């Protein structure tokens, strides 16, 4: 029954504990205590002991794309989309190899739970045998009836031919309101009752206008790739997309770069806004509205998005950027977004996401600088070296 200590222990469900202790029995945490109540067997020294990080949004099947499709300015986003489509067609890296390398990188960064958008659902088997937890969202995409019917049919076949595994659950992902038929959102009412759903919503400038008018640069792009026909039907507004995501037990609204305060009312307690800060910055989008959503009580989590738009899969680097762009946000709020809020978003909060007795012993020792200071601010400062990552009480890096 080992007991661990470090300079700062962050339960996340409560305030940091200076030289606190975490006691583990088997794969579970049995006690998290202030300093002085229990003798430690292992000391991580000048480090922060935090829950395993949660990456609420990534695409592991794009893990071979690092640096291959550089983000464009936001108003040329469709050029980037075109480049990603071309990359997927031309990449010689087997998808399974990309997924494996994304899993390995996630673990090195301290991620022990992630939400993975999977084009073919193939990451399910690989994640099920990996030392982390996941929700695999099978992607559905297509505006034209024939294309949508094909991807929805493949999703249904995958749903019926596979099963959830211990620590690995399944979900569905209508790609985006501008790329996926109205029925991809309407049919969310038909997914199995335990399924989660995630969708890229309000990611692009002009997205709301396109949904209302079916005109503008997004239409031009869709026509150029043959994605439109006279019968195409999309959801008619961002609010309608939000409403459909509110029909599943866990609805993830990814990006939300161009949501406005009126959309707050579209979020139910089962829904989460998932922001991807470094990807948002790479495209030069307008300042993100997430602080107003958080202030209004909407759950906000973070993701890395894929290596097609992000330099790495480090969730801690995402909230370190938010520390710089949102200096008024409390450090405790940012750390929660990268841990417990992500676990709540993905339906794993009863298992992980915080250091509490009864939860899985998933935690990360993050080296800290030698300086004095507020514990959260030290954690959210510069990176100080390799992390040690534990999953179910076993060191995995
Ligand atoms: Zn994405």
Describe the structure concisely for a colleague.
The chain is an alpha/beta fold and 397 residues long. It is built from 14 helices and 18 strands. α5 links the parallel β11 (168-174) and β12.
What features would you describe in this structure?
This protein has 397 residues and is of the alpha/beta class. The chain folds into two domains: 3-51 and 355-395, Urease, subunit C, domain 1; 53-346, Alpha-Beta Barrel (TIM Barrel), CATH 3.20.20. Helix content is 31%, strand content 22%. It has 14 helices and 18 strands. Strand 17 and strand 18 (394-395) form a beta hairpin. The chain is globular, with a radius of gyration of 21 Å. The model has no long low-confidence stretch (mean pLDDT 95). Bound molecules: zinc ion. Zinc ion binds at residues 57, 59, 117, 200, 254, 305.
């Amino acid at each position: 029954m080992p007991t661990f200590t470090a300079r700062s222990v962050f339960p996340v469900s409560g305030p940091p504990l200076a030289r606190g202790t975490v006691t583990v029995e088997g794969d579970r945490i049995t006690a998290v205590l202030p300093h002085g109540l229990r003798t430690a067997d292992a000391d991580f020294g000048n480090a922060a002991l935090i829950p395993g990080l949660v990456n609420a949004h990534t695409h592991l099947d794009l893990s071979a794309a690092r640096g291959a499709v550089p983000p464009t300015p936001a108003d040329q986003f469709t050029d980037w989309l075109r480049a990603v489509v071309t990359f997927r067609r031309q990449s010689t890296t087997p998808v399974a190899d990309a997924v494996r390398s994304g899993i390995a990188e996630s673990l090195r960064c301290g991620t022990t739970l992630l939400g993975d958008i999977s084009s073919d659902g193939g990451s399910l088997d690989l994640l099920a045998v990996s030392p982390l937890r996941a929700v695999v969202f099978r992607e559905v995409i297509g505006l034209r009836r024939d294309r949508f019917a094909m991807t929805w049919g493949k999703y249904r076949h995958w749903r019926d031919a596979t099963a959830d595994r211990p620590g690995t659950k399944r979900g569905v992902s209508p790609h985006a309101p501008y790329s996926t038929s109205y029925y991809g959102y309407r049919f969310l009412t038909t997914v199995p009752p335990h399924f989660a759903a995630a969708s890229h919503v309000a990611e692009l400038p002009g997205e709301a206008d396109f949904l209302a008018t079916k005109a503008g640069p997004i239409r031009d792009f869709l026509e150029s790739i043959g994605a439109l026909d006279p019968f195409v039907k999309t959801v008619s507004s961002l609010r309608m997309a939000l409403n459909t995501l509110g029909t599943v037990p866990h609805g993830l609204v990814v990006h939300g770069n161009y949501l406005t305060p009126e959309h707050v009312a579209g979020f139910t307690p089962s829904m989460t806004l998932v922001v991807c800060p470094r990807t948002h910055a790479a495209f030069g989008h307008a300042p993100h509205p997430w602080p107003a959503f958080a202030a209004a009580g909407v759950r906000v989590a973070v993701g890395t998005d894929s290596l097609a738009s992000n330099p790495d899969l480090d969730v801690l680097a995402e909230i370190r950027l938010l520390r710089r762009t949102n200096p008024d946000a409390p450090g405790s709020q940012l750390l929660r977004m990268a841990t417990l809020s992500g676990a709540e978003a993905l339906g794993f909060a009863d298992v992980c996401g915080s250091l509490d007795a009864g939860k899985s012993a998933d935690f990360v020792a993050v080296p800290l600088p030698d300086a004095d200071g507020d514990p959260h601010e030290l954690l959210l400062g510069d990176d100080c070296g390799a992390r040690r990552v534990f999953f179910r009480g076993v060191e995995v890096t």
